[in-house]
Amino acid sequence: MPAHKRRYISGKVAWYFKFQAPGATRLHAVIIREHGFATKKEAEDVESIRRSDELKKYDLARAGATGVAAKLPTTLSMLLEEFFRQHVDEKLAPKTIERYHEMAACLAPELLAMPLGEITPLHLNREWTRLLKSGGHHRRTKPARPLSTKTVRNIAGVVSSAFGRAVHWGLVATNPVTNSEPPVPREHIKLALLPAEQMVMIDAAGGHGSCLRSWICAQRPARAAARSWLCAGRTSRASMPPLSVLLRRPTTE
């Protein structure tokens, strides 16, 4: 509801409206307010006119800002906006576009405001550390929370892609992300069951063994690929206990 009532200590009642300006974001929120209306209808009528005017101004400014002779990006925030406009928003899938914008919103405002030529790998390393410690927020309670190493590395990938475009566009000479040290996610070791171990699993399933046997037969192509992965020396099964020990059926008396 755009119109709101305000009751003063004196008992006087006044109406006002507020709404978010077109193009505003979470990092750069712009709220438009106007006070002093005697009735709710008066506030809503003025709000409708004001909202329409602000939308027209935004459309005109956006049309001028995206033209051929528009001002070149000079800060990281402007570079990301240009990168999204030229590459992300036009060429990627809707869900990918949404995720790119969400990751860019996690960057610190002071880093976004820095000139492109002054951003160094050290600045970026400080940002990766901050994101790991308190880069996110809880959806309900809103306090800061750590981000995972995978998420921080994905954010670094977005910044690196933007700087890569900036190098091609002649805005910067080098990409500072390449010399920074974003966190490396831990690689999870994946193992495949040997045929003898699959039989032990079927026996352990009891009455559901026939269903499990059908499922395992359907997974033969995936098991073959997993065995090839193991034979290629990616990891070792030496430290893994036999499956017969892990799935030992309890004895009944």
What does this structure look like?
By secondary structure, the chain is mostly helical. Helices cover 51% and strands 9% of the residues. It contains ten helices and five strands. The strands form two sheets. The chain has a three-stranded antiparallel beta sheet, with helices on one face. It has a two-stranded antiparallel ribbon with strand order 4-5. Helix 2 runs antiparallel to helix 3, helix 2 packs across helix 6 and helix 7 runs antiparallel to helix 8. 13% of the residues are buried. The C terminus is likely disordered.
Task: Indicate the radius of gyration in whole angstroms.
Answer: 29 Å
User: Could you state the order of secondary-structure elements as H and E?
Assistant: EEEHHHHHEEHHHHH
For the biggest sheet, the summary is:
3 strands, antiparallel
CATH structural fold name of the largest domain: DNA polymerase, domain 1
**How far apart, in Å, are the first and last alpha carbons?**
70 Å
By DSSP, the count of extended strands is 5
Please tell me the overall pLDDT: 79
Structural class by helix and strand composition: mainly alpha
Strand content: 5-15%
CATH class of the largest domain: Mainly Alpha
Kindly report the name of the CATH homologous superfamily of the largest domain: Tyrosine recombinase, N-terminal domain
The low-confidence runs, each spanning 5 or more residues with pLDDT under 50, are 243-253
The residue fraction in helices comes out at: 40-55%
- Please, how many helices? 10
Architecture of the largest domain, according to CATH? Answer: Orthogonal Bundle
